[in-house]
TrEMBL record:
Enzyme class: transferase
Provenance organism: Neobacillus bataviensis LMG 21833
Protein name as annotated: Molybdopterin molybdenumtransferase
Free-text function comment from the UniProt entry: Catalyzes the insertion of molybdate into adenylated molybdopterin with the concomitant release of AMP.
UniProt lineage: Bacteria, Bacillati, Bacillota, Bacilli, Bacillales
Gene (UniProt): moeA
EC number: 2.10.1.1
Length: 421
């Protein structure tokens, strides 16, 4: 007689994992390597930006007071006393009816408070000296980019846990972060179990299949921000698997296995957890696919026994392994982002358990819409390629119709959701 497993609700399963306190760690990387990493500290402005008043246009820096009388019928003349490119600083103090020829980005000379664009000035020479004249007036501050208008020193600009994007790279450089504090990537160990598994370059023979799970999960680990330590595939043999798992646990932060978690005669993971003395959080979840997902804690590490069935394996990772990895990367929203979408097609299958349907979610006419990306069975691989989301169809329902509102979890999104969804 096989053991009867008691399925626990999905929310409870997620919570049990998240209660396990795994701390994120910080490391410093060069700004050149920080793109795509997660900030491990709030990013603060180390100075005003810009830190001096500067010209936002090519033209002439003037004292606005001297322009007051300028009009279409009264042109006002200025003596041009200096010439500045970006990076240059004028040693001169600008006096009455004087101007400085200034280029975009150059620091405003002392005394000036407005910039006249070249387009509205007439420049000429008189007695071999440069002059310019204007036929309109300017107010104090016209065409000036003021110190601190972009950022104020001490301001928190980006929160800890944010993914560094190209804009944040620009900020980091602006504030002189040569080395950037980022979350250390958790090392996630990975085994594929199954005597039936062939390597990717092996020819097909009766009864055997190529191992696709480890390639899929490795990509999922990288997508979420972890480092993959792949230990290879294991045959369904207790001693071999036990030794390999025990040894691997000394080398990683989290350990994922695929296959061997159900009630089959060669499903050894449950017995391995038992012999290890690991604390099994759950071994059955009220969901499809991925109901057999088994998760255990062991000496501050978490073991994820994902199903061997590819779609179940994929879903198990996204629901249970993703958030703990993201939390180690300091995310405050470590779970998949949940949004509402309109179901595009009928989904008549009744759902005793909550179902996560691999789906393609897209925007059409300003609305989020979702459609299954292929066959909905846990052994199916092909529907995963087109899946950018998981549609949540709650348990205890008789199926759904086109036009119904459904919840979708976005797989490629970087913002995430808090818990509970
Ligand atoms: N009597 C019962 N049988 C099964 C139950 C059950 O509750 N009672 N649950 C079924 C469900 S649901 C699932 S899901 C599977 C889970 O099985 P395991 O996690 O133990 O995985 P395996 O038995 O090792 O393999 C299942 C399936 O997946 C293929 N597989 C395994 N590894 C890979 C890989 N790396 N790449 C591609 N495909 C892989 C394997 O060949 C099997 O076909 O159990 C049901 N049975
Ligand atoms: O874990 Mo199985 O995929 O529930 O279908
Ligand atoms: Mg099995």
């Amino acid at each position: 007689m096989i053991e009867r497993r008691k399925p626990i609700p999905i929310g409870e399963a997620v919570q049990k994992i998240m209660e396990y306190q795994l701390q994120g760690l910080t490391e410093y990387v060069s700004i050149n390597e920080s793109f795509g990493r997660f900030l491990s500290e709030d990013l603060m402005a180390t100075s005003d930006v810009p830190h001096f008043d500067r010209a936002p246009y090519d033209g002439f820096a003037v004292r606005s007071i001297d322009t007051r009388e300028a009009s279409q019928s009264n042109s006002v003349e200025f003596e041009v006393i200096d010439h500045l490119g970006a990076g240059m600083v004028s040693p001169k103090v600008v006096g009455q009816n004087q101007a400085v020829r200034i280029m975009t980005g150059a620091m405003m000379p002392e005394g000036t408070d407005a910039v006249v664009m070249f387009e509205v000035a007439k420049d000429y020479e008189k007695n071999e000296s440069p002059y310019m004249s204007i036929k309109r007036s300017f107010n104090k501050g016209d065409n000036v980019s003021f110190a601190g208008e972009d950022a104020k020193e001490g301001e928190v600009l980006v929160k800890k846990g944010t993914l560094i994007n190209p804009g944040i790279q620009a900020m980091l450089a602006t504030f002189g972060y040569k080395d950037v504090p980022v979350a250390k990537k958790p090392v996630v160990g990975l085994f594929a179990t199954g005597t039936e598994l062939l390597e990717v370059d092996e020819s097909l023979v009766p009864g055997k299949i190529r191992n696709s799970n480890s390639h899929m999960i490795a990509a999922q680990i990288e997508r979420v921000g972890g480092i993959v330590q792949y230990f290879g595939k294991l045959p369904d043999e207790f001693d071999t698997c036990f030794d390999a798992v025990k040894d691997a646990l000394t080398k990683v932060d989290l350990l994922i296995t695929t296959g061997g978690v159900s009630v089959g005669d060669f499903d050894y993971l449950p017995a391995i957890y038992k012999k290890l003395g690991a604390e099994v959080f759950f071994n059955k979840v009220a969901m499809r696919p991925g109901s057999v997902t088994t998760v255990a804690g062991y000496k501050g590490k978490i073991l994820f026994g994902l199903s061997g069935n590819p779609s179940a394996c994929y879903v198990g990772f996204e629901l249970f392994a993703r958030p703990i990895i993201r939390r180690q990367l300091f995310s405050k929203k470590p779970h998949l982002r949940k949004e509402k979408a309109v179901l595009e097609v009928d989904f008549p299958k009744a759902n005793p358990f909550t179902r996560f349907v691999r789906s393609s979610t897209f925007i059409e006419d300003g609305r989020l819409k979702a459609t299954p990306s292929g066959l909905d069975k846990s052994n199916i691989i092909m529907s995963l390629a087109g899946a950018n989301s998981l549609m949540i169809l709650p348990g205890g329902t008789r199926g759904f119709s086109a036009g119904d509102d459904v919840d979708v979890l976005l797989l490629e999104d970087q913002v995430g959701s808090e818990w509970p969804w």
